[in-house]
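Backbones bend. Shown next:

***
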Amino acid sequence: MNDTEKDTDDSERVWELMKKVGICMLATRDGALIRARPMGAYVRREENAVYFLTDARRHKDDEIARDPHVCLAFADARGQTYVSLTGRATISADRDKIRELFTTPAKAWWDSADDPNIRVLTVTPNDAEYWDSPGTVVSYIKMAAAAVTNTRPALGDNKKVAL
């Protein structure tokens, strides 16, 4: 496998893992502070974007307007799978995209897709890093074996990927 094929495989793995986990922490900058909150992600590899529905009455929109650089942290602790993605965010009131993304989970926050406070937050990725291990039980067994043998455990894949 050449480097281009390997990069493509790693990129595909990032998108697969983000879609599988689904919920992430969205970190934004508020001046010198970094703020993170859980968000339901709509992962769209074919559009090179991760979408979120957000509310115009919340602070993240203002924070992104001042500094569009964000970090998305996806974590499946049970499966020992993690993805950290950096990118640029934009906020829009694209009603067509809001209607497309408005599914059952969104109904917990808004009555309908026509609520004037709903916005689409779009993250276009720059790069990502993922950690993908064989699972908690196997990881603990490998860590225990490494501790006994005074070696480092092989806990799965860790890759940095340009997107």
Observations:
- DSSP finds four helices and eight strands in the chain.
